[in-house]
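Ligand-bound model needed. guanine.
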Amino acid sequence: MAAIINGKEIAAKVKAEVAAEVAKLKEMGHNPGLAVVLVGDNPASRVYVNNKKKDCEEVGFASYEYALPAETTEAELLELIAKLNADAGVNGILVQLPLPKHICEQTILHAISSAKDVDAFHPENVGRIMIGDYSFLPCTPAGVIEMLDSIGCDINGKHCVVIGRSNIVGKPMGMLLLHRNGTVTICHSRTADLAEQTRQADILVAAVGKADFVTADMVKPGAVVIDVGMNRNAQGKLCGDVAYDEVEKVASAITPVPGGVGPMTRAILMRNTLTAAKEQLK
Ligand code: GUN
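Prediction:
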């Protein structure tokens, strides 16, 4: 039976560290804050935005929510971002994805000041991550590294297999594992004999977006399995990409869904907002 990597517990520790630092900034007369922009009424996005507001309250950040109608034009959204970029009371800006189809995500993400880009999606920040000279790390991959560290999993020299090549998770995840001297394979929908690849993994990260995608026969006995998936099964229950009940019998450690990577992503967002605030106050 695998050890369960408790994301909620590790996230609580990260948030407590952030809260202590925020309290110090407040004592110095600062009021650091995060602006969260939501366009349209995607119910999942609404839940994520509400959670971010809760996290801000918990660690002591001011949170500024901008909930805009689905018909908002790209020009209007750019105008809001320009305003937030110029607002000294806003230290971090997060535009919740996905955006409505008529708005170009790239245009919007490029418009956010790289100093306030707490998602680390701006090309300048993406480039800085590539060369290992960064202020912010993307929240989900950084959360995964934190979880591996928390169980004393040494990435150095390990074979790490990431399933998924998104800009948000798969690609930066591969890069962070590489920075820690992992030997990294990034698999995707065109990978030939995926199971053959995943069975080589000492550390397996699933970021696919399909419930029960990773089955026990795809996992090397003793592997550490990290589940980034956030899916709803046929019964509407939240579940990951990993067939948990069978994989936990093979893995040495595994993250649950819910209560695994999700809370860590949110905690790292708080840490990134703190980093942004401190750098802007320098
Ligand atoms: N939508 C799903 N995940 C994310 C994320 O990490 N950041 C933003 N801005 N939107 C998302």
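The longest strand covers residues 33-39.
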